[in-house]
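#struct-help
A.M.: can someone run this one for me? Single chain, 80 residues.
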Amino acid sequence: MAAMVRTVWRAGARCEEILEAPRREGVVTIVSRRGVPRAAVVAVPEALREPPALAELRGSADGCFGDGVDFVAAMRDEWS
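D.P.: on it. Structure tokens below:
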């Protein structure tokens, strides 16, 4: 896989080209500021290109709010 190094200033000027290169040509672009690498622009893996179906998210927030009934009751009481 080829790699290109760009400064922040040049990356801003060629943003569209830099964002398309990983998908189209397999090129990784390293963006640097004052000679220090700050970011890499790479292609998104196929598995991450499609958002998850709503059913796949079921249960993903378990435990985030404690007991759901208590959480909703507290929110409702706040507006009473």
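A.M.: thanks! The chain is about 40% helix and 20% strand.
D.P.: also worth noting: The chain has a mean pLDDT of 77.
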